[in-house]
Design goal:
single chain, Arc Repressor Mutant, subunit A, five-stranded parallel sheet
């Protein structure tokens, strides 16, 4: 069952573009299964829409399919029976039919047209400039291959550069909207599911009917018949040429090697030779480079860590890829037991930190403190790590926080340990107001609750 969730800002943007008296040209792109088709379907429900799905077949085959689609759309028997290799003739027939009616043209998987004919972006640029631009038209070019879509439609070198009136890079659904998919799950279950599926709608749908996260994993990921079993392979194969090199990098980072020097040492590759691979993975929304939140010059920071941004890909490289030989041998029971023993400490607890940071922004908007911070993230140096640090760049207020995904309630020792660690953060030390926030999946001890009640600078969150 497909649900339309969490895309209301994107939908509003598209509707505003559609309402314009002028023509609109939108580029909509994002990874496979992220929900582009669901968004365009929802947007096009009450509109005069023609939807064309490009394929990797020959240009002539795509052209013929588009011609027949247009002929059917405008009910033009002459166009249906004509043979042409000219895209412009087809688009002219489309826009000249009932020109007073607003038309929505969606070309999905647009990058395939540029892949089979490198000149196609130039062809479409001419079509836009001479046929579509000043007509009662809205065009949406969709694509799931991020690198190709950026190169063909957004890059300065693209013939289509400067033509678009807007673009949407569709991201994963945030955890704050995740509960809308599962009406019968409690917060702990939602976190467990989210740690595996991330915010990719198609992955989430597979988990609907599962009784718990482990049965969901066993049936939908460890099963060799499930598309998720080899999903990262197909994702990367479509985006990069040296799949093995990228796999090695992601696997190394998943194993805990997050510093560039450690990645380099583990792979026995020079750091300078890794840069382009890491940047490509960042562009694909698979990795991100994280720096301590208090760093004043992030780009120059030497404390940067490379982190897998995608929950599913991180899960897959931690628990599926290293155990594929066991799965292939039919030892799924052995693999699922390894997952049960390590999922919380080795995976969910880290995802929980990301969720807490996301929720900090929500709490900020709800005025949970006497000030509003403008930066929030993690802090670390050679000796200290703090899960959450948030501060007002123009003020002197700073929040320190810890996130604990443990079976036991959080006790006062965590607070006192945080006080000590806060001393290692140099930001306006000696001239700042400190606040403290604690997230605990299993609540807090009576002592911790009493401590929080006795102070006005502690906030407890479950």
């Amino acid at each position: 069952m497909s649900k339309f969730i969490s895309r209301h800002k994107e939908l509003e943007f598209l509707n505003n573009e559609y309402k314009k008296n002028s023509s609109s040209f939108i580029v909509l792109y994002g990874r496979r299964r992220i929900g582009k088709t669901t968004l365009t379907t929802e947007f096009g429900k009450d509109k005069n829409i023609i939807y064309f799905l490009a394929t990797e077949e020959s240009e002539r085959e795509n052209q013929n399919q588009f011609k027949n689609l247009v002929a059917e759309f405008i009910n033009n028997e002459l166009l249906r029976n004509v043979t042409t290799d000219n895209w412009e003739i087809i688009f002219k027939a489309l826009v000249n039919d009932k020109p007073e009616e607003k038309k929505l043209i969606i070309i999905d998987e647009f990058q395939y047209l540029g892949k089979i004919n490198a000149a196609f972006p130039s062809i479409f640029q001419r079509i836009w400039d001479t046929i579509l631009k000043d007509k009662n038209i809205m065009v949406i070019l969709c694509g799931s291959l991020i690198s190709m879509m950026e190169a063909q439609t957004l890059a300065y070198s693209s013939p289509l550069y400067g033509r678009r009136t807007g673009q949407i890079k569709l991201k994963q659904i945030p955890f704050s909207d995740y509960h809308k998919f599962f009406q019968n799950k409690d917060r702990k279950e939602l976190i467990e599911y989210y740690s595996v599926t991330g915010g990719v709608p198609k992955y989430i749908e597979l988990f609907y009917d599962s009784t718990n996260v482990f049965s969901a994993i066993e049936n939908n990921i460890l099963s060799k018949q499930s598309f998720l079993y080899e999903e990262p392979i197909f994702l990367l194969q479509n985006e990069v040429s040296e799949v093995g090199s990228y796999f090695s990098i992601i696997k190394t980072i998943a194993a805990g090697n997050k510093k560039l020097a450690k990645i380099s040492t583990a792979l026995e590759v020079k750091q300078t030779n890794l840069t382009k691979y890491l940047q490509t993975l960042i562009n694909l929304d698979i990795l991100e480079r994280e720096i301590p939140i208090t760093e004043e010059n992030p780009e120059k920071s030497k404390r940067g860590l490379y982190k897998i941004k995608d929950n599913f890909i991180e899960f897959w490289f931690k628990f599926v890829y290293p155990n594929k030989s066991f799965i292939e041998m039919g030892r799924t029971d052995f693999v699922i037991n390894k997952i049960k023993n390590n999922l919380i400490d080795n995976h969910i607890s880290y995802v929980y930190e990301d969720i807490c940071i996301e929720e900090m922004w929500k709490m900020n908007a709800e005025d949970k403190w006497d000030f509003n911070f403008d930066k929030v993230g993690r802090f670390w140096n050679n000796t200290t790590e703090i899960d959450i640090v948030a501060f007002d760049s123009n003020g002197s207020d700073i929040i320190f926080g810890e996130c604990k995904y443990k079976e036991q309630p959080l006790d006062v020792d965590v607070f006192y340990a945080l006080l000590d660690k806060a001393n290692d953060v140099e930001w306006k030390r000696g001239n700042r107001k400190e606040w403290y926030v604690f997230f605990s999946i299993n609540g807090f001890t009576a002592k911790m609750q009493q401590l929080a009640q006795s102070r006005d600078d502690i906030l407890l969150c479950t």
